[in-house]
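Need C-alpha cells for this chain, all 301 residues.
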Amino acid sequence: MNPADITAAVLEALGPVTDQLPEAKWRDAAEADRVAVRSTTVAITCAAAAALDGDDEFVARPAIAGPGATGAVLDRLLLGPLDPQRAGGPSDPGSAFREVLQHPPEQWAWEWASREASREEKALLSGVVSRRIAGIARMLQPWPPPDVTQAGRRLPWTHPSRPLRLHGSGEVTLGKRDGTHTVVAVLTGDHTGATRDRLAYEAVVEVLSVRRVPAVVRGLLPDAGRDWSVRVDDDLLATGVAAIATAARTALGVVRRDAAGLARQPSPACRRCAHQVGCTEGETWLAGPGRLRLGFLPPLA
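Here are the C-alpha cells for all 301 residues:
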C-alpha cells in the first residue's frame, strides 16, 4: 500500500464517525465538536464504559502529563546538540526539562506545566519525564542513538474537512542508510493483546503525517520493561486502519458520552464499574466467570 492508498482507506474507514461531525476544519470547530483520537484509545478494554465515563473527571497532574511532555525534552536532549543555533545543549533530562519550560511548546501538557502547575508539581513532572527517558534510554541502546533523525512527537494528522485529529505516540525516528526509517513509539501500560494494534495505529499515523511508510515500528513499554518491534507490511497497515476506525468511534462516544454501538468487554473492572446496571455483558460475567475468579461459586439457578 502506498501513502495515497492508505490515506484513502483511512478517510473511508472514518466515514461513519466524520459523517456525524459538522463540516468544519479543526481550528474553526467548537470545542464540543472536536474529536481527538490517540493510540491509548485502541487499548481501552471496554469502549462503552469509557464513553459513559466521558472526560469530565480528567485532571491534569504530573503522572498524566508526563508522557505528553516527554517528546519536547527528548528533542532538546537528542537533537539540541546537533543544532548550531542551540549550541551547548543539556546533557541530562532535568536540564533539558528546565530549558523547555522556559519556552514551552503549544501542547496541552506544557501549557498546564507553565500556566497552572505549582512549583512542586513542576518538580514532580520533571521527575516523571526523567524517569520515563531513563527507561527509554535503557531499552534504546546505544544511547544516544547515533542514527536519530527526529525526536519528539510529530504534529497530529488532521482530517481535511472535519474536526477530527489522530495523535501518535512516536517519540523517536531512526533513519537508515538505505533510506528507510524506524518509528519508535513509547507506549504506556503493560504488553497486552492490543499492543500490535497500537503499533499498527502508529504506523498508519506516521504514513499520514510524513507521506512515507516506515520499515519498522518499535514499541517501547518502559512501564513494563517490554521492547517489541514489528515489520510494516500491508497486513499491519490494514490492521492499523481498522484500529483507527475503532478508536475514532470510541473517541466520539467519549466526547458525546454515548455508548450506543460500542463494544462492551467484560473484565475485572466490571466489579468497580459505575455502569453495571443494565449492562447484560457485565452482569453475566460477574455472575459467572467473574464470580469464579473471585473464589466464589456461581449462584444456583
